[in-house]
Amino acid sequence: MSNMTVSRDHFPKDFKWGVATSSFQIEGAHDRDGKGPSIWDAFCEIDGNIADASNGHVACDHYARWPEDIELISRLGVNAYRFSMSWPRVQPDGQGTWNEAGFAFYDQLISALAARGIEMHLTLNHWDLPQALQEKGGWASREVCAHFERYAVEVARRFGHRVHSICTHNEPWVIAILGYEQGIFPPGMQSRKQAMRAVHHLLLSHGMAVKAMRGLGLTTPMGIVLNLSPIYPASDDPQDVAKSKIDDGLILRLYMDALFKGEYPQDVIDHLGDDAPPVQPGDLATIAQHNDFLGVNYYTRNFSSSGNPWDVSSTGNTVTDMGWEVYPQGLTELLCRLHHDYQPERLWVTENGSAFKDQVIDGEVNDPQRLEYLRDHIAATHQAMAQGVPVEAYFAWSLMDNFEWASGYAKRFGLVHVDFATQKRTFKNSALWYQNFLLGN
Ligand code: IFM
Q1: How many CA atoms lie within 13 A of 100 on its CB side?
Q2: For residues 85 and 151, is the Cβ–Cβ distance under 8 A?
Q3: Which residues of 139-157 are buried (b: 16+ CB within 10 A; e: fewer)?
Q4: Where are the beta strands (DSSP E) in 116-196?
Q5: Pairing of the two strands 347-351 and 293-297
Q6: 297 pocket-lining for ligand 1 (C-beta < 6 Å)
Q7: Which of 153, 204, 364, 415: CA 20 to 30 A from 124?
Q8: Are strands 119-125 and 80-84 parallel, antiparallel or unpaired?
């Protein structure tokens, strides 16, 4: 898809152009001003969990450097910023006492963004659950839903009228599956049953939180962000075809059907057998609250194979430093399918980006592959809109290089390069391209 022409003029004037970050990945200040530990603080302490044995103690030092980072956002020329609140920063134990110093941090950030006229899209849970709640079972425990609801209401009461949207959870699939089934993210568990409990409680707490926040009389758009991608069978073999159908069910339909149709897909429930989510009467109606928007995080497509794992190099397309194939058409296809099958009121691309090995040479970061990725995915978003899909936003992941979870600091997704030894920020050429694009060039 290279050499695709795309310009800002092709999009509506009020289209949201943004960059995204999350609290744990950039803030640092892991124990400052009364913040409690999150599950990621605890997970990083265990040898072997993080590729470069790093942690989030300093990260991008955004807790101290936020004025400089807002300058970067403003210089880019975006009109929207997506960020998350660290629950243990504002409520160290995930229940009980609120930490006013933590709220003060977000209060000043929100005021500064508002002063610059930048829309704020706030996520309540981008994975950094208070560790104290993990000790009660984390998302596998139904009890955590009520704590999340109270946290959501408190944040909405304080900031709901000042931000432009509230998202409950970022990527419940990742939290539940990588954390409770594959064990490569906290809490490091390997149980499908616990993972499906986590899925259900994440979705249930989403519904409870949206309902309760709306009860405050807020009209701020509310929704959820899912990581989604098209899944194809690796071959025509009926076993691969059957596997791709169930994989699609486990990754996309389980969440979308519950949220937008108020039911779990029967084929997936049958497949899960005794591990199926623990639904109680009324849960699915609670989950299926109206969402003002659906946030879609798209990075690549997937293939299902019943035999040998699919080989990513077989397509001949560029593969990123994460080992993910670059496939912009997948974004168009995904957005069209979501619109066709579920009709969310609004669709926002809430994350999209790529990691490559970047270097600063003579003050410049030349990252042509990221630049092409960005340009071609913006064009792919436009193609979906041309087919009638109501897409209203595109957020690049990420504003700057940051803590890429179990991969540590080695994987760089930023438009802005961060030298983690000095905290120096440098615009990469992809950032300069985005800036120019936003200027209408
Ligand atoms: O860095 C993550 C982000 O936190 C959630 N979505 C995917 C990104 C890249 O892996």
Answers
A1: 0
A2: no
A3: bbbbebbebbbbbbbebbe
A4: 119-125, 165-170
A5: parallel
A6: yes
A7: 415
A8: parallel
Which of 86, 38, 12, 84 is CA-nearest to residue 386? 12
Ligand 1 center from residue 404 Cα (angstroms): 7
Furthest CA-CA distance within the chain: 63
Q: For ligand 1, is residue 128 a contact (CB within 6 Å)?
A: no
Joined tokens for residue 250: 């486990």
Calculate how far, in angstroms, residue 353's C-alpha sits from the geometric centre of ligand 1: 9
Say how far apart CA 72 and CA 434 lie, in whole Å.
12
| 300 C-beta closer than 6 A to ligand 1 | no
What are the tokens at 364? 């410049």
C-alpha–C-alpha distance, residues 295 and 302, integer Å: 19
Tens of pLDDT, residues 312-350: 999 999 999 999 999 999 999 999 999 999 999 999 999
3-state secondary structure 385-407: HHCCCCEEEEEEECCECCCCHHH
Q: Which residues of the chain are modeled with pLDDT < 50?
A: 1-3
Query: Which residue of the set 119, 149, 171, 325 is catalytic?
Result: 171
pTM over 0.85? The answer is yes
C-alpha 309/C-alpha 307 separation (Å) is 6
In the CATH scheme, what is the code of domain 8-438? 3.20.20.80
Closest ligand 1 atom to Cα of 351: 6
